Amino acid sequence: MKKALLFVMIVAITLTLLPTATGISSVAADSDKSAKIETSKTDTVKVETAKIEKNDGSSIKIIYPVLSGFTSAEKINDLLKNSNLDAIGTVRKEQSYLEEYIKGMPQKIQDPPFASIDSSYDYNKSGDILSFVTNTYFYAGGAHGMTSLDSYTVNTKSGELYSFSSLFNSKSNYKKVILDSIKKSIDKEKNMYFEDAKTTVDKANSNYKFYIDGNKLVIYFGVYELRPYAGGIARFSLTAKELKGLLKDDVYNQMINAKPLEKIRLNGISAKTQFKTYEKDYVLMVPLKTTADILGYKVGWDSKNGASIAGGFIKNNVDTYYTTGSKKIKLTPAKVIGNVMYVPVTYFSEVLKEDVSFDGEALRLFTKSTVTPSQFDTQSTEFIKADSAEECADLYAKAVKERKGVVQYGLMSAKLREANKKGFEELNWVTGVSSPWVTTYNVKDNGNGNFKITFNWATSAGKSPDTTVTLSVSEVKDQQYFEITSIK
């Protein structure tokens, strides 16, 4: 369990950089169609939404954007793929630790904990500037999980992927203005922050994590960086108007008339219908019919049984929910206010199994219009991190035998991934050939992180010549897992 706790800490750092069984689908980013963002008469930016989902001990659900139509789209897509793969590898490793821990307990646990990752995203456009944020919740046992954000901001016309400093005129005093603004915000709510919060901001040295939400620049710090867990992610917003003269002219002109995202978001962007919600005992209550309509459900009414949806009935002031063939689930009771029935937002996620979530900042809904899943995403759900050099070498050998290119790729360092990516893509991530095939392999530890792997091959006609590969494996700095740094 000690290893599991260490991995949770690692994930909290790493993620700030990220149908049942093996169902992998994609949904379009504007109702049932992908979102097209007009950048010029000759250039159209497209945002589609892919989904990776698997439940086999651990629970994996990652909803992420797939970009096209501008020069740096592929680069960002690769960053997201790598982030998703690493997150999946970590959560599956955590699950193995939990299972090991549970096996060693003297009594059987009725509802054992399981590792999970649940991630979705938002995006907004400010002229030619496209900015999106992935919102990830990771759980690996314990009292609570960890929430993290990752963000990317790009100019779709020039292809520039912005760093924080590249937004500003280098000769301006933007560093001081922004630092003073953040510290002023902290001073207004001192009881919400750690005593050394302002010192932590100083140490960032104006190299902040950020995203652009319409006419606002949002700077954020991860959970536990500035305040306790209950305080969540600390965000500090400054409008384009406040930053006039500090931002580069092009950035300012793109932002000044753009609109921030609204609370209700459909497929990553503001929903056209912004409906009323309210909170009861820390539970968000949403209008049943309006929300159901957006997700493609029909709601009927029966004077005796109440609202009918998906084969179940919902009654005013009753806390039981179900659908055809499902078990009854108890949630916050439904409530009729005026002529509108409200239900807890979790009704849609836990009973109808829809991709609906609320994190205190936004209500996110994703529809299920599917497109062809990628081989990369399909294989990625089988990747697991290695917590020793020996395991890393063995996992690689096994992946070669099973022709799983994504698993091989996942075990590699960033440099090796980049060098081998094109070759894997040409093979559509299925390595080797149908004949000859690997029958067995032997991994020999030569010491100092070096391993010699001998692969035994065969065809339908009999044995084929053996081949050997030499790997160099090393521990990733500040993280408790290992990666392959060279293959010969």
From TrEMBL:
<dbReference type="Pfam" id="PF07833">
    <property type="entry name" value="Cu_amine_oxidN1"/>
</dbReference>
<dbReference type="Pfam" id="PF13739">
    <property type="entry name" value="PdaC"/>
</dbReference>
<feature type="domain" description="Copper amine oxidase-like N-terminal">
    <location>
        <begin position="266"/>
        <end position="362"/>
    </location>
</feature>
<feature type="signal peptide">
    <location>
        <begin position="1"/>
        <end position="21"/>
    </location>
</feature>
<feature type="domain" description="DUF3298">
    <location>
        <begin position="166"/>
        <end position="238"/>
    </location>
</feature>
<dbReference type="Pfam" id="PF11738">
    <property type="entry name" value="DUF3298"/>
</dbReference>
<dbReference type="InterPro" id="IPR025303">
    <property type="entry name" value="PdaC"/>
</dbReference>
<dbReference type="InterPro" id="IPR037126">
    <property type="entry name" value="PdaC/RsiV-like_sf"/>
</dbReference>
<dbReference type="InterPro" id="IPR036582">
    <property type="entry name" value="Mao_N_sf"/>
</dbReference>
<dbReference type="InterPro" id="IPR021729">
    <property type="entry name" value="DUF3298"/>
</dbReference>
<feature type="domain" description="Deacetylase PdaC">
    <location>
        <begin position="54"/>
        <end position="147"/>
    </location>
</feature>
<keyword id="KW-0732">Signal</keyword>
<dbReference type="InterPro" id="IPR012854">
    <property type="entry name" value="Cu_amine_oxidase-like_N"/>
</dbReference>
<protein>
    <recommendedName>
        <fullName>Copper amine oxidase-like domain-containing protein</fullName>
    </recommendedName>
</protein>
